[in-house]
Design a protein that fits this description.
This is Transcriptional regulator, LysR family. By secondary structure, this protein is of the alpha/beta class. It contains ten helices and eleven strands. Strands 3, 4, 5, 6, 9, 10 and 11 form a seven-stranded mixed sheet that branches. A two-stranded antiparallel sheet has the order 1-2. A two-stranded parallel sheet has the order 7-8. The chain is elongated.
Amino acid sequence: MQLATLRAFLVVLAEHSVTAASTRLHLSQSTLTRQIAALEHEIGTPLLERHARGVAPTPAGQALADAITGPLGSIESAILLARQFGRGDRTELRIGYLQSLARSYLNPALAALRQVHPGVKVRLINLCAAGQMRALRANEIDVALIGHEGRLLSREFYARRVQCVPVIAALPVGHPLAARATLRLADLRRELFIGKDDGESPGHNEWIAQMCRRAGFRPRFVQHAGSISEVLSLAVSENAVALLPEFAAEPAAPSIATVPVVDAGAHWDLLVLWQRGRAAAPVKAFVNALNAMPQRPILTARVA
C-alpha cells in the first residue's frame, strides 16, 4: 500500500469531497476515485459514504484515519483496525434511548447484540425524544430508540416500527375509573388530561388528541409535563388522566392506577431510527434484535 494513497484518503476526508480533494492533490477526479476504490478493495470494506452534500467516513474509514494520524499509529495496525471495524468486530455503537424503554426493550436488544458482536463497545445516551432527534441530526448518536415522534425524521433517517405498544390510562388510585379492568376512550370524555411538553416530546399531545377525536371528543389538557414521572405526579395532583404506552408506568407509582385502553387503534408506535448510508454490522444487528421481539398483545373491546 502506497503512502500517497493513504494521504489522498485523508485529504478526501478533510475536504468532505472527492472533487475538492482532487483539485488540492492535482489529480483528476477519476484517478483519485480509482485510488480510493483500490484502498477499499485492499482493506476489504467501504471507507466512504457518498451523500448529496459530499462524502463522510464509514466507521471503518474513521477508524483508519484515526489510527493513521494517531501518535503511535502504524500502517499495519491501522489497516487491521479498519478491517475489524468493517466486519463489526470492533466499533462503538452510540444508542440514544428513552429511560422508560430500558427494561422492556433496550436491555433485551443489547443482550442479543452481545451474542453476535461481543467486541462492540456500546455507549448509551439517555435522551428525551427531542434530544434524540437533535443528536441524530448532529451525528452524535448512531441509533435512536424513540416513539411516534420519530416519524418527523423519516425523510432524513432510516426508520422502522419495531413494536406496536398497548396504551394505558394512568389515574389516581381514588379516581372513580381507577378500579375498572379496562377502559374505552369514550369513558374519559369528561376527564382532564395531562400532556407532555412539545419541546421534550413533539407530537405526543397530538397523538392523544387523535385517539380522542376518533372516540368523539377533544381532550382538555390541564397541564403539560417534561418527564413521565412528572406526568404521573400531575395526574395525582390534578385528579386527571394521562394516556401513555404501557411500559411508561412500569412499575406504577403507589398512588397511580393503570388501566388498559381497549379501543381499536389505541396504540403507541416504538420506532428505531438510524443514520442513512451504509449501516455498520452492529447497527443492523441491534435493529434486527428489536424487530425480532415478540409483539405485545393489545386488548380490544368486543363489538356487540
